[in-house]
Amino acid sequence: MPSLVLLAVVGLLAQLVDGSLGMAYGVTSSTLLLAIGTNPAAASATVHLSEIGTTLASGVSHWRFGNVDWKVVLRVGVPGAIGSFLGATVLSRLSTDAAAPVMSAILLALGTYLLVRFTLFGLRKDRVGLPLRKRFLGPLGLFAGFVDATGGGGWGPVGTPALLASGRMEPRKVIGSIDTSEFLVSIAASAGFFLSLGSAGIDWKWVAALLVGGVVAAPIAAWLVRVIPPRILGSAVGGLIVVTNVRSLLHHTALGGTPAQAVVLALVAAVWAAAIVWSVRAWRREEAAETAELEAIASADEPVANAAITA
């Protein structure tokens, strides 16, 4: 029972992050399942099965808060479903010994991308409103879906930053649309795992625990996307994924279980802490700059308003 409660809490926290940042439910949940020794294919299948429910709840919540662009959902989600089905088939054919380090490496790459992206660059907002092209959304969905199934997560870490980097959609619409389209990706990935693996290795209690936690968090996350600082959250989640998967990869090398492993992990943790501090300071600078800009605009308008009243 304690393990199921822990999984439910993980599902809740992962969905809070995913629903407010547009990524990291699968990566976070898969990382935990791998850390406790789950077969990589079974871990990814478990996460994607739970995501069928969590992404549906998340999509409905985002829709009700006006965070969804349905054209983007279809244009990126359908190719994403194709890619995730192919990725599930590929992962199912790898042996457990071969798949574990491969999956950890993919998760490490995604975590590093999150950490660097949100720590150093934040979010781009200068091209909001320009149209997104099908020739961009289709290949993006296909690639993100494939990575998502093979890595146990990756739809959000690939899709959300790509759309945010384009600067053509409001951040809340990017997050809501990516979260909603993930419903299609989860169904396709689950179908791929079932055709290749059947139900072998899947613990349905784990699926239910992750699902319950995620469904509870979905509406809260859809609201939080309007108020939470994504830069700080992205750095925190990215660093957690990096530390966990560096540990997993070191376990497969000669450094596993040695003092050198502890030293490496300590250094990585120090970089993670520094990244969070950097993100907090950068966010505060951005907030101060925006406040100063608004005050300057208000000050400039005040004489005009006074003159109009006097006249």
Description:
With 311 residues, the chain is mainly alpha-helical. The chain has one domain. The protein is built from 11 helices and no strands. It has helices at 2-21, 25-35, 40-64, 70-92, 96-121, 134-151, 155-166, 171-197, 204-224, 230-251, 259-310. α4 packs parallel to α6 (134-151). The longest helix has 52 residues, at 259-310. The protein is globular and about 80 Å long. The model has no long low-confidence stretch (mean pLDDT 75). This is Probable membrane transporter protein. Pfam families: TauE. Its main location: membrane. It is found in: Cell membrane; Membrane. It is a multi-pass membrane protein.
Compact description:
This protein is mainly alpha-helical and 311 residues long. The protein has helices at 2-21, 25-35, 40-64, 70-92, 96-121, 134-151, 155-166, 171-197, 204-224, 230-251, 259-310. The chain has one domain (2-310).
